Amino acid sequence: MIRFEPRGPVPVSRMLAVSVAAALAALMLAAIPMAFAGLSVFEAYGLMAKGAFGSLFAFTEMLTRATPLILTGLAAAVAFKAKLWNIGAEGQLYAGALAAVAVGTGLVSGPAYVLIPLVVLAGALAGGLVMLGPTLLKTRLGVDEVVTTLLLNFVILLFVQMMLEGPMQDPMGMGWPQSEPILDEAALPKLMARMRIHWGLIVALVAALGVWFLLKRTVWGFEIRAVGENAAAARHAGIPVTATFIRVGLLSGALAGLAGVGEVAGLKGYLTADLSPGFGYSGIVVAMLAGLSPVGVVLAALFIASIFVGADSMSRATGVSNYLADLIVAMALISVLVSGLFLRFKVRFVGGPAAKEAAE
Amino acid sequence: MTEILDILISANFWAAALRIATPLIFGVIGALVCERAGVLNLGIEGIFTAGAMAGWMAVWLGAGLWGGVLVAAMAGAFFGLIHAILTVPLGLSQHVSGIGVTLFATSLSYFIYRTALPDVSSPPRIEAFKPLDIPLLSDLPFIGPALFQQTALTFLALALVLATAYVLYRTPLGLAIRAVGDNPAAVESQGLSVYAIRIGTVVAGSAIMALGGAFLTMSAFDAFFFGMVNGRGWICIALTVFASWRPGKALIGALLFGAFDAFQVRLQTEVGSFIPGQVFLMMPYLLSIAALIVVARKADYPRALLVPYFRGQR
């Protein structure tokens, strides 16, 4: 029989080891579907590595893909830290993108140092407000936020489609459901000439630092952790639990909204209803792989981004479906859940001679 | 007003309502069974997708229709087993594990479909279930067209509601399932294994969920499409709360939902020129949220829902 014995505080080195082990486990498990698709495993990983790191262009593409993943990863990490199960980052991302487009396509005009902050703020605010609804429903009425945030993802995507086919459609867009392009002064500048990598990455890294500081060094951060560990005990200790949930919800939604801002104002330049290939859901995997640590989120986002970019490139070379990337990411989540056990517990196999000795 | 009445008294409308409700009936019954044993199964969205893909593919590869249904159920059971192992003996977060199972089941289904059919432009079709034409009964006015133009899977769903209610409330097994969802320590003290009951229930519930997916590709449509489940799984999770974890209420909830959905589709043809189509498409999701809000105050959750149980620990 297997017994789990709780361990004390977890050192960072062991947390890192667990995440790396989970990532490796996912890559090894992926050999099964690869073989099913008739791929040579080493060749496939070679192609993926080349696709994500093989050239300066590949590397910047990987960083470009990591940008929204860092932000949605932070959104999930900060919410999960308080055990607020925000699974709605996908919808909040679209809300942020929609707000960015609403503000950035001519509603206001001005120089870049006015427009860019305005667009970023609008996106963050929209994402935060979208998460405020489920948070209030949870704190006021006890409605489970998992289901409401999941369902809102569909509602918001439909709302975006409605706006793109209606009031916000680009009159010059030949009837395609897309928004007008973001003004040049409102667009996040590129980081390198002739590459797609943009200032959204800096925003994401600053956000990671900010969340780290908040969680580790401020009273609000302490309250978030306390509520996550035991909401009832936190309430008993005088911590404002409801206010903490609302703060966390606003912050989590805002971070996801920023991911949408980056994609639309930094990368695409205009909004379509297929802006995100599930960045909101992948963000959950990023957060779990990171052990909910903000610095870990950056590393985990780089890993997941290289899987996605590498698999795209491998798929182009071999014709094997790039759904393989989603599969590896899903297996990484399950692997990290299982390996997390080794983090929190010592696993003992009891019932052997040792147990008998102990019984005597 | 008369248009609305016309809709409500047409047999076609009620036939559509029952058709829309069928996958939800499977989904809610499956989710309800798992939650009665204390395990929230957010893998449902992925299990729907897996059931839809596996059932369809089995038939496409040459199995009979009922063979396809069986394969779908087995696919659901497989993913249910993963969720059960992660959440019951390992005691991991049911939320995160469920999302993980959904991501895994969805991406695996898509990957297998794409690998088996690398470059098809239009999804291949199968010979789907046909409406059961029962002589005499089908000719009854109103009820005949509404009830007896459904496929065998709809009748299976209705039968499952009865069977689930019977098992849960009239058998020792049902008592044990409800008890592990309310007070697992008491079950253990009776010499029963909480783990075995919970794992078995989650596996069975997941197999039932997968039939909802199979209905989509083998009865409602005759092909598999990406994104075809489209949140139906999450809607079922909301309906489970709405139904207070009771099979009879689950049936009523799913039927109400189906009726509302069928109604708004018909309303759309009346007023569609004034209101964008997306407003109507949002309705099922908004309605689910509304259903959750309505029952939130009095929801009587199984007491050990989401609480992992560890042997010999109080």
TrEMBL record, chain A:
<feature type="transmembrane region" description="Helical">
    <location>
        <begin position="197"/>
        <end position="215"/>
    </location>
</feature>
<keyword id="KW-0812">Transmembrane</keyword>
<feature type="transmembrane region" description="Helical">
    <location>
        <begin position="114"/>
        <end position="134"/>
    </location>
</feature>
<keyword id="KW-0472">Membrane</keyword>
<dbReference type="Pfam" id="PF02653">
    <property type="entry name" value="BPD_transp_2"/>
</dbReference>
<protein>
    <submittedName>
        <fullName>ABC transporter permease</fullName>
    </submittedName>
</protein>
<dbReference type="InterPro" id="IPR022324">
    <property type="entry name" value="Bacilysin_exporter_BacE_put"/>
</dbReference>
<feature type="transmembrane region" description="Helical">
    <location>
        <begin position="53"/>
        <end position="80"/>
    </location>
</feature>
<keyword id="KW-1133">Transmembrane helix</keyword>
<feature type="transmembrane region" description="Helical">
    <location>
        <begin position="245"/>
        <end position="267"/>
    </location>
</feature>
<keyword id="KW-1003">Cell membrane</keyword>
<feature type="transmembrane region" description="Helical">
    <location>
        <begin position="146"/>
        <end position="164"/>
    </location>
</feature>
<feature type="transmembrane region" description="Helical">
    <location>
        <begin position="279"/>
        <end position="311"/>
    </location>
</feature>
<feature type="transmembrane region" description="Helical">
    <location>
        <begin position="92"/>
        <end position="108"/>
    </location>
</feature>
<feature type="transmembrane region" description="Helical">
    <location>
        <begin position="323"/>
        <end position="343"/>
    </location>
</feature>
<dbReference type="InterPro" id="IPR001851">
    <property type="entry name" value="ABC_transp_permease"/>
</dbReference>
TrEMBL record, chain B:
<keyword id="KW-0812">Transmembrane</keyword>
<feature type="transmembrane region" description="Helical">
    <location>
        <begin position="65"/>
        <end position="88"/>
    </location>
</feature>
<dbReference type="InterPro" id="IPR001851">
    <property type="entry name" value="ABC_transp_permease"/>
</dbReference>
<dbReference type="Pfam" id="PF02653">
    <property type="entry name" value="BPD_transp_2"/>
</dbReference>
<keyword id="KW-1133">Transmembrane helix</keyword>
<feature type="transmembrane region" description="Helical">
    <location>
        <begin position="39"/>
        <end position="59"/>
    </location>
</feature>
<feature type="transmembrane region" description="Helical">
    <location>
        <begin position="195"/>
        <end position="217"/>
    </location>
</feature>
<keyword id="KW-0472">Membrane</keyword>
<feature type="transmembrane region" description="Helical">
    <location>
        <begin position="95"/>
        <end position="113"/>
    </location>
</feature>
<feature type="transmembrane region" description="Helical">
    <location>
        <begin position="12"/>
        <end position="32"/>
    </location>
</feature>
<feature type="transmembrane region" description="Helical">
    <location>
        <begin position="279"/>
        <end position="296"/>
    </location>
</feature>
<keyword id="KW-1003">Cell membrane</keyword>
<feature type="transmembrane region" description="Helical">
    <location>
        <begin position="147"/>
        <end position="169"/>
    </location>
</feature>
<protein>
    <submittedName>
        <fullName>ABC transporter permease</fullName>
    </submittedName>
</protein>
